[in-house]
Amino acid sequence: GGNKNTTTTTTTTADKEDGIILIFPTTLSSTSTSTDTLTTMHQTAESNIQSSLGDTIRLCLATFSSTSSSTSTSLSRKEYEEQYSKRVLWCLDHGYEYIEVDISREGLTQGFEKREKDGFARVVEAMRGTVWSSAVMCTGGRGGRG
Fold it and tell me: Is this structure's pTM higher than 0.90?
C-alpha cells in the first residue's frame, strides 16, 4: 500500500553535483569579498549538497560593469591588486578557476573570437567544454548522423 513517504539512499547521476560556481561583485568593499567570504560560500555550498561536490567544473566569478564608475571608486589600484592576488591564490588552493566578468552589455558580447578567452567568453567556453554527468554518449552506429 501507501508508501508515500519512502526515502531512497541510492545515488544516481541525476543526484550528482558536477561542480560549483561562486559569483560575487567586485564593486563591494575589500572586506565583503575577502577570501573568508569565499571560504564561507564554498563551505555552505558543500554542506547543502548531500553527495560530494563534483570536480567537473569549479568557477569563481568576480563580476563588474565597465559602464559603471563605481569600480574605480570602490578600491584603489593597490587594494584591487591585493584582493585580486588573494582571490587567485584562494581559487588555486580550492580548485577553482578565477574569472573576472564584465557584465555590461558590451562585456557580455566581447572576446568570443579570441583563442585565449577571458571574461564571459571564458565562462561560456568552460561550460560548453564540460562533459556533464548527465551527458548521453553515442555508442556505435553510423557516426551519430541521421
Answer: no
